[in-house]
Amino acid sequence: MSFNCRFAPSPTGPLHIGGVRTALFNWLLAKKNKGKYFLRIEDTDKERSKEEFKKQIISSLAWLGIEHEDEEYIQSKNISKHVTVAEDLIKKGFAYACYCSEEEINEQKEKCKKQGIPYVYNRKWRDSKDLKIPKDVKPVIRFKSKISGNTIIKDLVQGERNISNSTIEDFVILRKDKSPTYQLSATVDDHEMKITHVIRGDDHMINSFKQKQIYDAMGWEVPKFAHIPLIHSEKGKKLSKRDNASTINDYIKIGIIPEALRNYLLRLGWSYKDKEIFSLKESIELFNFEGIGKSPSKLDMSRILSMNETYIKSINENELFNKLLEFSNKFKITIDKSKESIILKSLNFLKNKAKTLEDIYNNSGYILNDNLKISSEDKSLIDKKSKDIIKNFIEDFDALKDLNKTSLEPIIKNLIDKHKTNFKGVGQPLRIGLVGTKFGPGIYDIILSLDKATVINRLKKLV
């Protein structure tokens, strides 16, 4: 069996993290089964759809390595086909024109609200032989849903789902302006694209029951459905675009690397034994529906940062450096060419305890910026004793011929003994002078990352 999967976002806002996971699962299923994964842009909401969001969706998925077949499928270009199918449904007796006014619909909704029951359209125009068609009123087209019996969907994640057909109203498939609704467009496009598997959030379950009726009415083969649980915020509520860290851009701009985020999203609601870290090859080979849980997953920022830290430690440093350059150029400053080699050779300690690319960038601040700004709090730590330590260090350091840790250690030890202090007593004032703060990398790493003249010039400013 061939596998055709798709991700179908609407370009009405930045790509949501839940959508990214849906795209990932579709992509993995297609890859595992040597099938095809398509990207469909559902842009029929002309008022809210924006080109900038479409571009952001495409670039974000590419950043994660989720690349689609062929060109993007643009839904608005297929509207005439959607309308033709609606007309076919009318001819076959599966759809009808409804002339109810907005006032009538609102009255029905208010009546249901008072009775404490869900609103279901009363099917007034389903059998219109005794009704007079009002003049100058444009109708909507409604699908003639089944009234009796039940419909079953054998969901690949949720198992068999069975609902009474009476709970599905005669839903609108064409609006008054002849524009198709989501239920019609999505069904027609999935058929046209020969989609075999539809993986989406479980909030779409009722849509699948509606769309299955359209498939059956048209005599089309119904795809296999898989409804995955939603992602909740850390507070346990449904994640919305108003939440922090809800869109993929929120992660890119703090320096989460794509491999780490992809691994985190794979594990968010899916598991394979007790394995945590998955290579791309393993992700494709091991992904299956059996590993998808049925309960909502909770977004855990601390877990994302931990996963990112693991990847920062493990990936090739040249690759990490290129990611840092890209991040800095996009969100911070363009790193001067003269500083690049210094940062690259210092990455082994600059990445120490770094959870994000932004952390590495901040750790590199003393290399990137020659004009350090020392806070008044840190300056207050530079007392007479500290200044004497710095003066003595400059004298001994300037006399060194070979600059390495072995040659530096005796100087530091001598200063500790001479000034009757400890390693912190020597290291702290030197770090403040060289980095601009008492916090930062190890003192030996700092000194050896800078050239000799820079070390001396920076320390002289404190004495």
- In terms of structural class, how would the helical and strand content be classed? mainly alpha
Number of strands: 12
* Number of helices, counting only DSSP H or I runs of 4 residues or more: 20
Give the uncertain stretches in residue-range form. Answer: none
Helix content: 40-55%
Identify the strand order in the major beta sheet: 1-2-3
Oligomer: single chain
| Estimated radius of gyration | 31 Å
Mean of residue pLDDT?
A: 93
Instruction: Describe the sheet with the most strands.
Output: 3 strands, parallel
Amino-to-carboxy terminus distance: 77 Å
Write down the overall geometry: elongated
| Percentage of residues in strands | 5-15%
Tell me what you see in this structure.
The chain is mainly alpha-helical and 463 residues long. The chain has 20 helices and twelve strands. It has a three-stranded parallel sheet with strand order 1-2-3, with helices on one face. Strands 4-5-8 form a three-stranded antiparallel sheet. Strands 6-7 form a two-stranded antiparallel ribbon. Helix 1 links the parallel strand 1 and strand 2 (36-41). It is elongated. The N and C termini lie far apart (77 Å).
